[in-house]
Amino acid sequence: MRATVVVPVLKSRSRGGQSESASTRTPESRLEEATGLAQAIDLDVVNGQIVPVNDPRPATLLGTGKIEEIKALLDERDSGLVIVDHPLTPVQQRNLEKEWNAKVIDRTGLILEIFGRRASTKEGTLQVDLAHLNYQKGRLVRSWTHLERQRGGGGFMGGPGETQIEADRRMLQDRIIKLERELEQVVRTRQLHRAKRRKVPHPIVALVGYTNAGKSTLFNRITGAGVLAEDMLFATLDPTLRRMKLPHGRTVILSDTVGFISDLPTHLVAAFRATLEEVLEADLILHVRDMSDADNQAQSSDVMRILNDLGIDEAEAEKRLIEVWNKIDRLEPEVHDTMVQKSAGASNVVAVSAVSGEGVDTLMEEISRRLSGVMTVATIRLPVDKLALLPWLYDHAIVDSREDNEDGTITLDLRLSETEATELERRIGNGQKSSKEDWER
Question: Where do the record's region annotations for Disordered lie (predicted)?
């Protein structure tokens, strides 16, 4: 379908009476992003236009002159769809469709359409359907009075019965309730999976970031997985978890989540909360940023705002978050070198290229260091009847040296966290404190 993208730039009045933009983003970057969103569902964008709006109209958002100008462009380019990169009220959407004689969708509707195309798991489909129905419920306007049904009864009991619009609202609400119940079951299943993972306490590392920041490419680079990774907004939607080994042998679980975006609709965040809870559960969060995008600072602010909405405040983010400055391979050599030096001097930043692999080893070392915390140095001698613990040790500790003794026992020099040291002591002693010859620190 041939589509036209319209980006309204609303002006807000400051206290001094000066007009200033209501958005922190440049209009050009908004237009580029909206065009990318449209192309992500195979729309043919034949025109993109930035429209300054000094006085938003309640009925149409845009002024009469601009509406007529866009109408002429639609006729000229045979465009049957208009994407307005701004929330529209149901009345504004209906009026614009009448004026332009074309289908009109706003930013929320476009994002929902993309999510509907991308969802592949049952959970993802349920989440998208729920968000779409909540959105659609507000789009039903009282315009179908000709579809009123006559109610039975005599005298004062007569008159119009249930209208079609009310029936539709009731059907939508019934469907929403059904989906919410199904999602509750999915949430319970996910919680059971988390509980199982806690019994095998591998740390969880979650990837977050603005859509198209390169999370899935980095995920594939680190884990060797085959997750879809394309230069496209919202290329992946459903979360993916994989085990991976850190440089010193420790196993962690890496989680790739849905990409964030500015002005993400509230009911979308609510619908995807079960998925995004993987981030809340994570021991470490990797915030992947596309440093080749001129708008990366604004994108970073959007991501941090959503994390804050999920319950991760700045103080907690400081302890649990690593900024991954991705796509440095796209930068000019001078900018590239400056950024690498700047990241090297920061305590929570690593510059990488998920495509070329540059900086990925440094990132893995930093993940290992951050997850290690306060390490306990230990020397243990595993008796013959405890050799089955060896795989657990290689998964949860850093083995510095190993000596196979003549009597069949094995002596190991280890580094491991306090939590894992306590668990190892429990496993060696079968819940009892082990003897000194088996456990030395």
Answer: 1-31
CATH of domain 203-372: 3.40.50.300
Question: 156 by DSSP, 3-state: which?
Answer: helix
Domain ranges within the chain, ordered by starting residue: 2-10+24-115, 121-144+165-200, 203-372, 376-428
Candidates 3.30.930.10, 3.40.50.300, 3.40.50.11060, 3.40.50.1980; CATH matching 2-10+24-115:
3.40.50.11060
Evaluated on CA atoms 151, 157, 160, 164, the torsion sign reads: negative
The pLDDT tens digits along the chain (441 residues) read: 899 999 999 876 444 444 344 456 789 989 998 998 898 888 999 999 999 998 899 999 999 999 999 999 999 999 999 999 998 998 999 999 999 999 999 988 888 888 777 777 777 788 788 888 888 876 765 443 334 444 444 333 334 445 566 777 778 888 888 888 887 887 777 677 666 655 556 788 989 999 888 888 898 888 876 555 454 555 555 667 788 888 766 778 888 877 788 877 666 666 666 567 677 778 899 999 999 998 899 999 988 888 887 778 777 777 889 999 999 999 999 999 999 999 998 889 999 999 999 999 999 989 888 887 656 788 888 888 888 888 888 877 778 889 999 999 999 888 777 667 777 888 877 543 334 344 444
Q: How many CB atoms lie within 10 A of CB 264?
A: 20
Known binding-site positions: 209-216, 234-238, 256-259, 326-329
User: 420 Cβ partners below 8 Å, 6+ apart?
Assistant: 201, 396, 397
In sign, the C-alpha dihedral spanning 157, 160, 166, 168 is positive
Amino acid at 89: T
Would the CATH topology of 2-10+24-115 be identical to that of 203-372?
Answer: yes
User: In whole angstroms, what is the distance from residue 244 CA to residue 205 CA?
Assistant: 10
SS3 306: helix
Asked whether the beta carbons of 81 and 105 are under 8 A apart, the reply is yes
Whether pTM > 0.70 for this model: the answer is yes
* Known binding residues for GTP: 209-216, 234-238, 256-259, 326-329
